[in-house]
Amino acid sequence: MNIKAQKGTKDILPSEITNWQFIEDCAKKVFNKANFKEIRTPIFEDTNLFERGVGDTTDIVNKEMYTFTKSDRSLTLRPENTAGVVRAYLEHNFFRESPPIKFWYFGPMFRYERPQAGRQRQFHQIGVEMFGVQDASADVECIMLAVEFLKTLGLNDLTVEINSLGCNTCRKEFKDELKKAIAPFKDKLCEDCQNRYEKNPLRILDCKNEACNKLFEENNLRNKVSGIKLCPECSEHYNKLKLYLDALNIKYIENPYLVRGLDYYTKTVFEIKSNNLGSQNAVCGGGRYDGLVETLGGEKTPAVGWAMGVERLNSLIQPIEDKKLDYYVVSDNQLEAVKLTKKLREHGLSAEFDYNSRKFAKQLEKASKIAKKALILGEEEIKNNFITVKDLNTFEQRKMNLQELI
Ligand code: ATP
Ligand code: MG
């Protein structure tokens, strides 16, 4: 039997790993500077966590979850990590500490989706979550961090889109207006949108179905609904966010139809899109979720965060070449070769030797492929206690003793 990786999953090979490590290193650097702390939560959780946390009118919960039963317990591979982080925040009493509480994470997520370019069933997200700050300064901290992280990765050709979904009161009127505008062609919408119409009409605007999008255009939906009219408090919050972004020179586009796919967002939502990604062009999505901690059993706590798709980031970054080893030890004396290799490594240098003591020509050929310099330890060298160092770039050769070398 010829077993292959599952549809929608991918091996990340050694040839690609330098890019992944670069992304992770940048994340560590950028988030640590801003005092976000890394958190690693389990990959599977109680299914209830996502049903309640992500929301049972979302695609993620309705169609995309990997759910299984073990010992009568329903478990789910995490489709996203905000709910898991909130669970950990509550379970470990972080709410007792003085706010803000700031986390970041990096790890695999699982969604049963149709695999295509930029869309997998196991994919990775990097994200941040920030608890305890009501002011728009937290929203701007998160957006600023996302932009800085993307810049550190060398990605500049990106567009930040923002919107405010307001609170329940602000949304009520918009939902009614939206339903009224959609009513005449409601029956032609996809099955999902028909369900959303009653349960969560806002989400219709986030539909990825081409036929639905065509219907919206034909019926001029976007001109018939004006966007969410914000109450004074939500409006002040949104204006403050824009003021901060302007002051920080972070360019953004206001998109009144940006609603995001999850149920938990309140007030600010944002997406960062790349102009070089084709149709799956969102690299980052996030927003404020002031109701989620309470929904999951805690006190009402303001919170904001985002997640980025690492595969999509990766496809925008140039492949980074693997670093060569500092030294390759070329010798027909394995004992001396392994001793020297050990010493080099103890001094922080990267090194390898030939495990099979092949002919010198073969060893040098290998060395020139994987190392910057070859250290030749022949009979002569061992007898007289020196090493011949060969620069594999310039082919220059020098005699040195071990002390000089390290
Ligand atoms: P999309 O609109 O592309 O489906 P989403 O709204 O489902 O995205 P979020 O749940 O907000 O996305 O996740 C944040 C980011 O994670 C996305 O912007 C994207 O970069 C990435 N992402 C989401 N789903 C996938 C997937 N199936 N494969 C690869 N990356 C994904
Ligand atoms: Mg999605």
In short:
The chain has 406 residues and is an alpha+beta fold. The chain contains 16 helices and 16 strands. The radius of gyration is 27 Å and the shape is elongated.
Account of the protein in words:
Helix content is 39%, strand content 23%. With 406 residues, it is α+β, with helices and mostly antiparallel strands. The chain has 2 domains: 14-166 and 230-316, BirA Bifunctional Protein, domain 2 (2-Layer Sandwich), CATH 3.30.930; 325-405, Rossmann fold (3-Layer(aba) Sandwich), CATH 3.40.50. The longest helix has 20 residues, at 14-33. The mean pLDDT is 94. The structure holds adenosine-5'-triphosphate and magnesium ion. The site of adenosine-5'-triphosphate has 18 residues, from strand 6, strand 10, strand 11 and helix 12.
Bound ions, cofactors and other small molecules, one mention each = adenosine-5'-triphosphate, magnesium ion
Please indicate the percent range of residues in DSSP E strands (runs of 2 or more): 15-25%
CATH class of the largest domain: Alpha Beta
The best one-word shape is elongated
Distance between the termini: 51 Å
Compute the average pLDDT: 94
Q: Please estimate the helix content.
A: 25-40%
Question: In which order are the strands of the major sheet placed?
Answer: 1-5-6-11-10-9-7-8
Instruction: Please give the largest β-sheet.
Output: 8 strands, mixed
User: pLDDT below 50 for ≥5 consecutive residues: which ranges?
Assistant: none
Instruction: State the helix count.
Output: 16
Q: Give the full name of the CATH homologous superfamily of the largest domain.
A: Bira Bifunctional Protein, Domain 2
Summing up helix and strand content along with how strands pair, one would put the structural category as alpha+beta
**Subunit organisation of the chains:** single chain
